[in-house]
Amino acid sequence: MLHYKPNDISVPEFHKLLLGGVGPRPIALVSTLSAEGKKNLSPFSFFNAFGVNPPIIVFSPARRGKDASLKDTYNNLIATKECVVQSVTFSMVEQISLASTEYPNEVSEFKKSGLTPIDSDIVKPKRVKESPFQMECKLIEMKSYGESGGSANMAICEVLKIHVAEDIFTNGLIDPKKIDLVGRMSGNFYCRANGEAIFEVEKPIAKKGIGYDQLPDFIKHSHVFTANNLAKFASVESIPSEKSVRDFITEIAKEKFEGFELSEEAFYRYQRLSDYKFMMKTAIQFVDKNHPKAKNFTELTAKCALEYNDTDYAWKVILTIANFSNQS
Ligand SMILES: Cc1cc2nc3c(=O)[nH]c(=O)nc-3n(C[C@H](O)[C@H](O)[C@H](O)COP(=O)(O)O)c2cc1C
After folding, report:
1. How far apart are CA 75 and CA 34, in angstroms?
2. Whose CA is nearest to atom 18 of ligand 1?
3. Tell me, what's the pLDDT at 203?
4. CA angle, corner 272, sides to 267 and 275, nearest 5?
5. Which of 183, 88, 96 has its CA nearest to residue 133?
6. Interval 135-162: pLDDT, tens
7. Residue 106: its pLDDT value, please?
8. Which long-range contacts link 46-53 to residues 24+ away (Cβ below 8 Å)?
9. Which ligand 1 atom sits closest to the C-alpha of 184?
C-alpha cells in the first residue's frame, strides 16, 4: 500500500487520488440563475442524496483549482438560493461535458451545450428537458471549508419537487437499465450503469445470515469460490439438513434431463451455458463414480448456482460432497 496525508503531496495530486478512489460518482447537472437572471448550467460530481424526510441533496461547486476563485454556480446560489438538479444519462454525457467549459458568466451553457431549458413549477431556474430525472431545489445552507484552490463549498439543498419520466419505470421502480445513468471516475473516465455493469445483491436486512465464521472449512478453503461466493453462502439463515441434501440427490438421480450427455466435455459446455442443473446432473454421477474431477465439478456447479442467486441450490450442491464422504 501507499500511504498519504494531505500535506505529503500537492493539492492536485491529492485531488487526483480522491477522484480515483471515491467513485463512480453520480453527476448533478445543476441549473441556476444569476442575480441578473442569466441562465447557468454546470455538472458536479461531488454530489449525493443524504436524506428523504425532508429530502436533502448536497453538491460541491468548489473553488477553482487554478486561482481559488468562486464558480458561477456558487455565486448564483448565494444570490438566488434556488437550483434545479438533474441526473445525467449516457445519451447526454458529451453535452454535460461541454457544459462544464468555463464560459464567461454572461454565456448560457444551455446554448453552448445544446441542452433544452424548460420552465420549472416552483423555482425560477430552468429544468433540462433531456434529463429524465429533475429536482427543483432550494438552498438551505452553503458550508465552506477553506478559501484555497479546490476548497469545498457544500451546497445543501432541499428538494421541493421531482419530475421523472414515466417510461423509466419497471414494476414501480426506476429501472437502472432504462434510466441509463453515467458516473464519474478518475481522470477523463466515466462509467455507464447499464448492461453487465448492473447486478442485484439481495438485502440482508430481512434475515440474519449464518456468517462467514460458520462456513465449513472445505468450502472456505476451496480454490474455486471467490470472497463474494463465500459471502453469499454465509448469507443463508441455516445450512440445509442432511436429509434435504439426500432428497435433493435422489430427486436429481430420478429426474430425466432431455438431451443430457455425461462427459467432461459436455460439463464444460453446460458451464459455458451457465446451465447449473445439467452441470449438477454430471457432477453427481462423477461423485458417485469417485471421478477425479468430481469435487471440482461440484464446486463449479455450486459457484454457477450462486452467481444466479440460487443459493439454496448451491448449498445442496456443495453439501453433496460432504454427504457422499459421510457415507463412504
Ligand atoms: C462530470 C463533471 C463533474 C464535475 N464535478 C465538479 C465538482 O464536483 N465540483 C466542481 O467544483 N467542479 C466540477 N466540475 C467542473 C465544473 O463543471 C466546471 O468548473 C464548470 O465550469 C463550473 O461552472 P460554473 O462556473 O458555471 O459554475 C465537473 C465537471 C465535469 C465534466
Report:
1. 7
2. 100
3. 78
4. 70
5. 88
6. 999 999 999 999 999 999 999 999 999 9
7. 82
8. 46/152, 47/85
9. 1
- Report, in this order, helix, strand and coil percent for the chain, each rounded to 5: 40, 20, 40
* 153 CA to centre of ligand 1 in angstroms: 12
SS3 245: helix
Residue 295 confidence (pLDDT): 94
Ligand 1 atom closest to Cα of 153? 11
Residue among 128, 199, 190 nearest 165 (CA): 128
Q: Where in the chain is CATH 2.30.110.10?
A: 6-197
* C-alpha cell recorded at residue 168: 423509466
Please report the pLDDT score of residue 205 as a whole number. Answer: 66
pLDDT in tens, 187-214: 999 999 999 999 988 877 667 899 999 9
- The CATH code of domain 6-197 reads 2.30.110.10
Distance 4 CA to ligand 1 centre (A): 25
Report the nearest-CA residue for atom 23 of ligand 1. 42
d(CA 150, CA 131): 28
Residue type, 308: Y
* Integer Cα distance of 111 and 101 in angstroms: 12
Please give the pLDDT value at position 327: 45
- Given a cut of 50, the residues of the chain with pLDDT beneath it are 326-328
- Residues contacting ligand 1 via CB (< 6 Å): 27, 40, 42-46, 60-62, 71-73, 97, 100, 102, 184
Which of 45, 96, 103 has the most ligand 1 atoms within 8 A of CB, as the residue to mutate? Answer: 45
DSSP at 70: P
**Using CA positions, which residue lies closest to atom 4 of ligand 1?**
44
- For ligand 1, the distance from its centroid to the CA atom of residue 165, given in whole angstroms, is 25
pLDDT at 328: 41
